Amino acid sequence: MTTLQHIQEAAEILKDRVLRTPLVHSPYLSRHFGAQIYLKLENLQNTGSFKVRGAVFKLFSESQKRRLQGVVAASAGNHAQGVALAARQARVNAIVVMPEWASISKQEATRAYGGKVVISGKTVDESLKKARKLAGEGRLFIHPFDDPLIITGQGTIGLEILEDLRNPDKILVPVGGGGLAAGIGIVVKAQSPRTRVIGVQSTACPSARESLRLQRRVMVDAAPSLADGIAVRQTGKRNYRILASHLDDLVTVNESSIAAAILMLLEKKKILAEGAGAVPLAALLEKSVHIKQRDKVVLVISGGNMDSSLIGRIISQQLIQNARVMRMTAVLEDVPGTLATLLSQVAALKANVLHIRHDRNVGDLPINMSRVAIELETRGEDHVKNILHHLRKAGYNVRADPVALPK
Known about the structure:
By secondary structure, this protein is of the alpha/beta class. 43% of the residues lie in helices and 19% in strands. Helix 4 links the parallel strand 3 and strand 4 (94-98).
């Protein structure tokens, strides 16, 4: 059983091998939520995720017992990179089995850290089975979460939080397989028992929540999620026992809140958090966790590894949903100067044109009419409402994308 002493010993070993990530106070988030909000930035960790802590400690501990012929792991991303870097530090070979759907960028990042990538399995569970077979050939298998040494390594985050912030009221931690929350929970309940440790999962894969609700470990179905890093269908055996005794609560968050949290961290704090790393903030946005005015609340931003294309889609979608981007169409008389007049009206209303398409060949319009589709940068719902009001008052036949309409 992992104890506080084990984690303290691990911290000494990891001191020169992983980064001590900062705990930063956020004035903006504190004002927004009416409490003192702090961010533990594991997205700044080596490999961009907390996972390297457990991997390095596991590999170091095992290498002290015997000469390693190599290591093998299975992961869709963060654990893969953590194991690859840990193996490079220990100067042993690493094989990482990744599922068929693992992103190319995460495959390449794992290779860049020195890992040999093997693509096998339609799910992470199938990849784990393949990894265990490879481990049977004399290599050390490193499980992503269900391992006491992995839990011990991840628990060093809890030590750092309490060293930097005395007696926080709440610590919100992402939960997938449970290694991170278990390690932090052990530290916090030993050193600051009044601090509430709250786990956060996506509703797309609520394995720990269902296990705690039913008081037994269960496997759940998993839907696609922005928080793919915590989309684990079954909590680890060791982890479940620790979570049941060390978590004060566990909440779930939906996909729209995760996307909103990613954008808020990026826009307001210039912090790139992956979906799993953003779920603690998503819980505050959903008001799933009750906080008081003077509460000191820590959000564990567990990682920041996200594909660039996905970042772009999240930003675009959120800007539209928040009425920061407006899409509208207008039917105009097809004569010179009509479009210019419309655009001058838009400029007078202080909206910025992002994209425009002018189409004369539209089958459902008279021959002397054309349709213009315009995408505008706007300031929010009131601005959108003002634009529509003035253009319609000026006689324009304008239709807005339903998402852009004021609620």
